[in-house]
Model the fold of this input.
Amino acid sequence: MTRTIWLVMMAACLTAWAAPRGTVPRAVATRYPAHAEQDGVGVGAKLLSREEARKAFVSDVNDCCLVVEIALYPRKDKAMDVSLNDLTLRQIGSETAAKPSSAQLVAANLQKSSRAKRDISIYPSTEIGYGSGPAYDPNTGTQRAGGVYTRTGVGVGIGNSGAGATDKDRSTIEMELSEKGLPEGSAAAPVAGYVYFPIHSTKKKASYELSYMLNGNKVLLSLPQP
Done:
């Protein structure tokens, strides 16, 4: 294999790691427990329970944040810009609102927590391959050609007290969270994905309100308990 081909393959792998793929959006925004529409743009959201988060992720996201699945439905005649900066989450009864955490920050917090608390840590493992079949592209809502892909599994690390996840494990956690996160950028078709909010509550039945800034206007969604 020539150096040029090797560099092209590495670039393709890094692109696959860096680009969030999100989740498959439901048919319409009203299929989500919380939903709204403004100026022809639909918004749907669902707060994941701790059990749902455990099923959705190999990484222990419950250890650091709340996870909200968010879907955005652009107007048919106009693409929209998707940015995590437009989202906030507030516990009802609190004056403080939280902005989303990046996959990188969540992964770093999970690594730190693992080192502080566990001798045995569970983290994602990855496999890189090439697929020839079509795959769903959340940025366009269409099928895309096969290519370099990553597959997430489960790894277990055992070490001395305080050892926890390694830097390599942190990178793998970050990749899992990025791949499942809400895709940012221009969207001409519905997109969906998970957003990670650094909120901890001592209340078992705490209620939350999601705020989304759409074209300078605030859209508020009350998130029912899952």
The helical segments are 3-18, 50-56, 103-117, 167-180. DSSP finds four helices and 14 strands in the chain. The longest strand covers residues 120-130. Residues 1-18, 128-132, 158-163 have pLDDT under 50 and may be disordered.
